[in-house]
Write a structure and sequence with these properties.
The chain has 367 residues and is of the alpha/beta class. It has helices spanning 6-18, 30-38, 59-67, 71-96, 118-127, 132-142, 154-159, 161-182, 198-219, 234-238, 240-244, 254-262, 273-278, 295-309, 325-334, 346-361, and strands at 22-26, 44-48, 101-104, 188-192, 226-231, 249-252, 314-317, 338-341. The chain has an eight-stranded parallel barrel with strand order 1-2-3-4-5-6-7-8, surrounded by six helices. α2 (30-38) links the parallel β1 and β2. The radius of gyration is 21 Å and the shape is globular. It binds phosphoenolpyruvate (PEP) and magnesium ion. Phosphoenolpyruvate binds next to β2 and α12. Residues 5-356 form the PEP-utilising enzyme C-terminal domain. Keywords: ATP-binding, Kinase, Magnesium, Metal-binding, Nucleotide-binding, Pyruvate, Transferase. This is Pyruvate, phosphate dikinase. The active site is at 318 (proton donor).
């Protein structure tokens, strides 16, 4: 529970008066959303929905959804998950009280959802009404050598459209529910992960729009919403003009963008990066502070190409860099609209955004 003093509020007030960049938080639990608001977050910039799936009450249904070989089996599992997700989103909409909430559709490394023991395989076989051998084969079929470069993000949503359909339904039902209760509708921003091509966004967006129309017809209620994409692969940055034609916003996923630009696993980099920094091969850890020459160049290309198609395209960043002062300075210069970081970094980000605005303006104003 953050305890905020009067001095803290005064300091933050000064920062807020000069900054241009908005500051949002990465949050998926009510606790994180609450903390984010107390620290002054102006919205949620990234709700990672896969984190919601690990809840012990749900993981069984999640495994069923992944391991079922039929659409019918997957839909049965998804029907169990829908009420959980509806509640998840309704909670976030209520806490954020009309501020923007960016919900990213499922982006798991698939291996985290696969069964890990004989006992789990046996349990799944029983719940899916099949045999252990079938389940073992399915697990082997789904296993990947490089899960972080594999069947994740929108690739999973395109292979199994019913997953994104369920999540979109949960989002729209929660939005309608919140609008009816609060008298004010939230504006969900639905975000598609790991897009590399325009067509991926087109296909997933069409699914989402279809579900929206269904829910609005059923409920007799309409809410505004946006559908946008993460820019976290070099190809997406390089073709951002085409992607912008089908998206309402971009959010730079600089964790994956750093991983894929350097060809360097974000999970293993710590083993030798400190040596690289020590030897001056890299000025800083690029997973902490934006690598301006490589990742930064891709961000600038995407900003320019995206805005050449949509001059007011909403642009943010939601990788770890969104809470790093030097990277926030870069985001200011690149013309982004907001940064999103972990709730506890929101005050630092507000200060850094103010500092960046002052130095970008070349002003001698003192705060
Ligand atoms: C990213 O890749 O920068 C991102 C925000 O998504 P995640 O860290 O969940 O992959
Ligand atoms: Mg990512």
């Amino acid at each position: 529970e953050p305890q905020l003093s009067g001095d803290f509020s005064t300091l933050m007030g000064w920062a807020d008066a000069v900054r241009r960049l908005k500051v949002r938080a990465n949050a998926e639990t009510p606790l994180d959303a609450d903390t984010a608001r107390k620290f002054g977050a102006e919205g949620i910039g990234l709700c990672r929905t896969e984190h919601m799936f690990f809840d012990p009450a749900r993981i069984g249904a999640v495994r069923q959804m992944i391991m079922s070989e039929t659409e019918r089996g997957r839909r049965e599992a998804l029907a169990k998950l829908l009420p959980f997700q509806r509640q998840d989103f309704a909670d976030l909409f209520r806490i954020m009280a009309g501020l923007p909430v960016t919900i990213r559709l499922l982006d798991p490394p698939l291996h985290e959802f696969l069964p890990h023991s004989e006992a789990e395989i046996a349990e799944l076989a029983e719940s899916l009404g099949t045999d252990v051998t079938t389940m073992q084969r399915r697990a082997a079929d789904l296993a990947e050598a490089n899960p972080m470069l594999g069947h994740r993000g929108c690739r999973l949503g395109i292979s199994y459209p019913e997953i994104y359909e369920m999540q979109a339904r949960a989002i729209f039902e929660a939005a309608v529910l919140t609008a009816k209760e609060a008298g004010k509708a939230p504006v969900p921003e639905i975000m598609i992960p790991l897009v590399a091509t325009r067509r991926e966004l087109e296909i997933t967006r069409a699914q989402i729009d279809k579900v929206a129309q269904e829910v609005f017809a059923e409920s007799g209620y309409h809410v505004e919403y946006d559908v946008g994409t993460m820019i976290e692969l070099p190809r997406a940055a390089l073709t951002a003009d085409r992607i912008a034609e089908v998206g309402d916003f971009f959010s730079f996923g600089t964790n994956d963008l750093t991983q894929t630009t350097f060809g360097l696993s974000r999970d293993d980099a710590g083993k030798f990066l400190p040596l690289y920094v020590e030897k001056g091969i890299m000025p800083k850890d690029p997973f902490v502070s934006i690598d301006v020459d490589g990742v930064g160049a891709l961000v600038r290309i995407a900003v320019e190409k995206g805005r050449s198609v949509k001059p007011n395209l909403k642009l943010g960043i939601c990788g770890e860099h969104g809470g790093d002062p030097a990277s926030i300075q870069f985001c200011e210069e690149a013309g982004l609209d907001y940064v999103s970081c972990s709730p506890y970094r929101v005050p630092v980000a507000r200060l850094a955004a103010a500092q960046a605005a002052l130095s970008a303006g070349g002003s001698d104003q003192t705060a």
